[in-house]
Amino acid sequence: MLKKTSIFIVAIAVLTSVLYMPNKYNNLYGNDIEGSRLINVLRLGKGILDFWTQSERYLAQQVSDTTPQFGETFDFIIIGAGTAGATVAARLSEISQTNVLLIEEGSHERLYMDVPLFASFLQRMNFNKKYRTKSSDKYCLGTEGNSCVWSTAKVVGGGSAVNFMIASRGGVEDYDRWAEMGNEGWAYKDVLKYFKKLETMHITELQSDTAYHGTDGPVHITQPSFRTPVAEAFLEAVKELGYPSIDYNGKSEMGFSYMQATIMNGTRMSSNRAYLSPARDRNNLRVSLESTVTKVLIDPSTNRAIGVEFVKYGQTIRVFANKEVILSAGAIGTPQLMMLSGIGPAKHLTELGISVVQDAPVGENLMDHVCFYGLAWAINASTTMHIHDMINPINPYATDFLTKQTGPLTTSGGCEVIGFVNTGQAEKHDGLPDIELLFCGGTFAENNVFQKAFHFKEDVCQEWDKFLLTYGWRNVVILSKPKSRGRITLLANDINVKPEIVSNYFEHPDDVRTMIAGIRTALSIGQTKTMQALDSQLVNCTYTECNDYVYDSDAYWECAIRTLSSTIFHYSGTCKMGARGDPTAVVDPKLKVIGIQGLRVVDASIMPEIISAHINIPIFMIAEKAADMIKDEWGYLESHDVNKLHEMQREIEKFSERNDTNGTTCV
Hints:
Low-confidence stretches: 4-10, 12-25, 642-667
Distance between the termini: 62 Å
Radius of gyration: 25 Å
Shape: globular
Helix content: 25-40%
Number of helices: 19
Mean pLDDT: 88
Structural class: alpha/beta
Largest sheet: 8 strands, antiparallel
Strand content: 15-25%
Number of strands: 25
């Protein structure tokens, strides 16, 4: 019955689209479609039915949901089946003599999530946990209540199942700085082997670069085969300004490139697809879905984590761990759970009536890559992606994806080019960037889904609505190395009460100055001969909050970024990694919670400093490294694994020597 109803709804939607979409035909391919519009609609209908069948098959191939018995014991219990948790669970279950329980609050990943272009729509879906930051008069002024929307994915695969699939690692210096902060074993020369281990590189010109890239890992990385003509022009424009074309996951990340993405055969590669699905038949791996962990059980006499308590379908279940409990609930969920379990700032916990097990700075050091969405350019040609064209059944785009996994629907949320720059020294092509620029082949103003996802105020939406039928492109400005720090605290001794999130965007004045410099860099690209040849016109949205400032002054842009500042979903740092004895550290370099035995944290919350990249690939790396550390500690790192690591270490030493010769030292 459900299937028939869905088919009927799809049929009505197709008919409505044909009747009410603009009659003008626009084709990104540069030529007309084959056959009549009716033929294309019929092909689309068949593609939708085939996709439905594939979806059912895809769901059947997921890991099975099981419910542990009260009091059941496992070797390892992992909380959270996101990027990190799925990876660690799969790697630990490779050891046949262990038994592993993975607990996830959400349910299975669905096939529609894996359509790359739809990434920008997934934030409004009901599998997201929708957090809001505390209201502020300094940022997110264009959103309802002056409160930023911070969502996290409640689904197997976590953020990797809903993100924009951007595969970036960060710079050499990012990880060397981690090591310099007291985190032995986390320098770039130490983590490179794990970046390579997780990766299968499909970009032809990079496959031979085995010093930096892997060819047999579970995470497949490629560049979307479809490119808009405007993306090609954008790359020419940055060359016009002197920026190099680079492999930003190689020796240096400074420059511009078509995006590397976690995509295989035109569809998303999540941690679920990469790690969990291949492990679904292992008898020693159990997964409990729709299960909300309420606390980590800690023996007060030994300060040892002995298990967890969780609720599933209204039933409270306790399970126990022989060896370790591993927290992979993310930079919001992990600190919340730790504090509810008695690990956190003693004064704060006491005020909420929580018995203190370990006084620790849990929830501090909160970081995120704040971004500015307010720069878009209109053009007169239909050579960019417009949502109406994408879903119009007379066009071939949806049909091509459904039948061949090709076309614009294979692009990462519509974003095509990524660049890393140093705004203070534009000619400098090494070191760390302070700004990332993200080119998207659409304006974001051509539909209101994006506006609603971020809960922008009515006056902001009205400005953008003026450009609903506009073709164009957008340059998202992202602050790569923020100096501001926020915090997460509890509002109640209850897992169902969302914590208070203070992002503190732009608290440090350098962050404001850097963002304004990033905006001016983005504007300079729009003014190049290449982009002007496309008649690119800056979309000048006048925001009520900024009318008192002279347009294009620094004061105007500061007002604009405080109005349209928002998250790019890179929450991190709330369980900071540091040397034992560091008063700001929550976990040590082995990712063990300081002062608590049998408890580790493996997710973005351990980052002592946010890296200058999108964080999904670094989280995969953290999880791969953590799995090996856990195996090693419990004697499971088999001899052939040790030999392989020694072989990799020799490669890294050669890499270090080669970079020393070229004047770049890996510490």
